[in-house]
Structure formats: structure tokens, C-alpha cells
Amino acid sequence: MTVIEARGLRKAFDTTIALDGINLRVEEGRILGLIGPNGAGKTTALNAILGLTPYQGKLRVLGRDPWSERDRLMRDVCFIADVAVLPRWMRVSQALDYVAGVHPRFDRAKAEAFLGKTTIQRASKVRELSKGMVTQLHLALVMAIDARLLVLDEPTLGLDILFRKQFYDSLLTDYFDRSRTIVVTTHQVDEIQDVLTDVMFMNRGRIVFDCSMEEFESRYLEVMVNPERVAAARALKPMHERQALARSILLFDRVDRHQLAALGEVRTPSIADVFVAVMGNEAGQAQGAAR
Amino acid sequence: MNTQSNAIPESSLESHVIAATSLSAPRLFYWSVRRELWENRSVYIAPLAVAGVILFGFSFSTIAGTWEKALRLDPTHHEAIAMPYDFAAALLMGTAILVSVFYCLDALHGERRDRGILFWKSLPVSDLMTVLAKASIPLIVLPLLTFAITVATQLIMLLVSTAVLAASGLHAWTLWTQLPFLQMSLLLLYHLVTAHALWPAPIYCWLLLVSGWARRAPFLWASLPLLAIFGVEKIAFHTSHFASIVGSHIIGAAPAIARTGPDMFPMDPMAHITPAEFLSSPGLWIGLVVAAIFLAAAVRLRRYQGPI
User: What is the pTM (predicted TM-score) of this model?
Assistant: First the structure.
């Protein structure tokens, strides 16, 4: 079943085009990483999906129009928009009471159990908690909601690596199952490479790359080549090349693995490497077009 | 064919799921109002603090004998007896107005300023429900709370004077017969509902609307346009109708809630009230329509608003 479907999704602010006709389809049970530079339109796309901003074009989330049916959609959709959105005046116990009061699918016992594993006190106010604890609290609230779509916009921004690791571990072990769908944006791409089932790159309001992780792993290969073989490797038309420790690392798209193995050590590239390559080529094309 | 046969069970299943998982509107409203009271504790702390100050002052003056003298001088003159009670009610109502104004100016501004709006919008509570819950604070919660606190304060005042009178060997029952306590309370409730909720509703709703719209300084944005309209009207037409209309709604001096005389105070006996006149005054209904328009605009605005 299709969870998110967008066709020709557009959104323009006063002077900039944030979304330039996006087509998007996310099926149930996927974990999609939406990667892009700052200002690429990721947050705008998520805001449109969550019914937080009006848009042009067609958009359906769980069969609903998010802009006109936000409150009904939020029974099935959860989001963590940034680390600091829990109201600072609120007590932990009040957050639990309130969500239990207004959300039909909130399982309080589950949230309490998750909080029990942390050092968060029920009587504390959000403003007294550390950044990591606020995220833990928010995650506890969200994971206790039996939602079908979870949207995370930079959920681990400003957290240390231990918290980030723990965040995604909790999400995968305690929350995710095949009937749920997660869409996540982050700048810490490599940390979520193993978590994702799909990856999408955005740049200047467009989706410039869209690939499942299975396809990603079979399509993209990286070879470490010694200087004497660089010319031979370049002949196979790498999409990107960089230097590391006197060797060249060349990134290939759809080139036979055996052919590459003859040139040097072959491995699956990180999403970040492919991202840099795709964005670099994008920029080159844009410059070429400008000339 | 296939899609059609599939569509029917799916949609009926969906409506079944929605029926099973939706919460009743009163429940959402209840939690929305509770949430407002958690955030804005001044709504009940301010009147309670004022009540405490009143009780302290009254006990002091009673024990010092000021009112006792008044009683002894002229026990049949109920206005002198009722005076401190009226004064207490007036102070508490003034507090309620101040709290309402500051609450309204922050209600839809604070949640955008602290980015909490993103959390509230991540929950299945509609903008309409949120704005109605916020509007209910100055229009329902505060008047009722003021009523309860005022009556409780007056009752304690009455008990304190009874105790002091009894201790000094005076006839405490004079006080109870002279003070029309039930009448006073009913009149207070009437006054709060008419002059503190229904009549100034457009003002409170205007403040709510501005708090949802202004990026900063909602108080300035709420007052400057009104001043500008006063000014333009005065200069262009040499009249001040707008000022007098807005002014009357701000001061809460609904002309028709009671017959006014030179010695009138809102706490005066029930005989003076004119509910029929109040309910049939066009000023009230026009005001309520304007209030509803402001609220509808605030609901619509909240859909578009995010953190500032």
C-alpha cells in the first residue's frame, strides 16, 4: 500500500522555489532517507506531507489530503520536527497525560516503560532536561503511538554520537516493523546507512536521486586504485574521483564488479560519497547550463 | 470492476477504524483547556493571590475594628456593610480582566515563539479545537473561576466578621440579615457572564487573533490599528463613534445589563438588572458576530502558522 504519493508537488515562497514539481512514492514498510544540502527543500517537503504548509500539485498521505485533514491524519502519523519542539514549560508527567488524553492510539504503559530505561524524572520540566533527554522523551511519546507513518526531520541534531546511535537503535528494535513507514532527513548520512531501505537526494527543490538500498549496493561501487592504474580506471568513466593516501578512489555507477576488482580494492561506497558525487555532477551541469 | 469491488469493503473498514479510534470532542476540549491552565498558571494563581491579600487586609481591618464601628453606628445601613464585599469583588474582577488581556496576547504567540506549535500540531487536535480552548479561558474559565474565588472570599470575610463580632459580644446575626449574600452572589454571576464574558468577547477575540498573527509585539499590533482608526475618524469626520464603541466593550460597561443610577455599583440588588434589555441590545449581538469572525480568522491563520 502506498503511504505517500506526490505528483507535481510545488511550493514557492516569496522569492524562492522550495519545491519544484516533486514526484514521490513511498510504500508501506520502507525507511526512506531524504538527504540534501541546506535549503534543498527537504523540510518544506516534509511540512507539506504533515499538513503544515499549503502546496500546489497532488499529494496524498495515507489516502488523505494533509493540508485539509491534518488533525485526522495525525491519528496515523507522528513526527519529530527538531530536537527542541517539546514546550519548555511542560512537565514530563503532563506530556504523558496530555498525549494520553488527546491521542486515541497512545499506549501510556509503553511510553512509561521506555522512560523507565532513562534517567528522566516524571516531575521534571522539559526546560530542565538536557537536549538528549528531551529527544528521549519525545521518542518515548512517539514510539508509544501506534502510527503508520513516522516523520523525523533532523531528529538527532545537536546530540552526541552515543545518543544518536541509541536513537536509531531504539527506533529499529522497539518501534519499526513492516507495517510502519519512516521518513527521515539528516545530515549525519553515514550513521543511518544501515537503517535505510531507500534513499533520496534533493537539491534545489527537486529530487535528483532516488534508489532503494538493494539497488544502491548493486549499482554503486568504489575502487581504491594505485597511481599506475588510474588511467585504466578513468577509462571506465567514473562518476567521481577523490584522493586518499596517495591512492585514488573512484566511484562507479553500473560497472561490472569483476572488471573493477582487477584495478584495485572494491567496496560499497557510503551514501555520503555518492551524495557528494551526485551533487558535484549536479553543480557541474548547472554551471554548464549557466554558460 | 476489480477496483470497484475492492473499494467498498475498504472504505467501510476505514470508517470503522476511524469510529473506533477517534476521541470525542468534549474530551479533546477538556485536555486542551487543561493544557492551557498548565502553561498559564497565572490564570488561577493571580486571582488566588489577590483573594489572599484581600482576606489579609479585611481580617486586619475587622480586628482593628473599622467595620465593626460602621456596624455599630448604623446596623441597618446595608451599603456600609456590603462595601468591603463589593470592593473585594471589584478587585478580583479587575484581576481577571488583566489576566485575560495578557493571556490572550500570548495565547497564539507563545506557542510559535517557543516552537511548541510543531509539537501541538503533531497531535490529532484541530486548529478549531485549539483556538476554541484558548478562547474559552477569558470567556468561560476566568469568569467562572472569578465567581468561585469571589464567593469563597466573601464567605470567608463573612465568617471572619461573624467571629470577630461574636467574640466582642455583638449580635452577629445582624450581619447575616443585613447582607444579602445569595443575592450578591447571583448578581455577581450575572455581572460576570454579561459584562466580563459576552460583552467584551470581541475585544478578547481580537487580542487572540492578533496574537496569532503578529510576529512580535502583539500588544502594539493589537492597539495601534485601533488608535489609527480613532485618529482617522476624528480627523476625517470629526466624530468618534469607533472610539466609543470599542471603548464601551473594553471597559465592560455594557449600558443595558442593569439600570444605572447615581448610587449604582454592579453589586447592587437584583431588582436593577435588565437581562431582557441586555439580550436584545444590538451592540451585544453585533459584538458576538464580530468575535466569531475574529475567532474564525484566528483558526484559519493557525493553519498557516509555524514557529517564528
Answer: 0.86
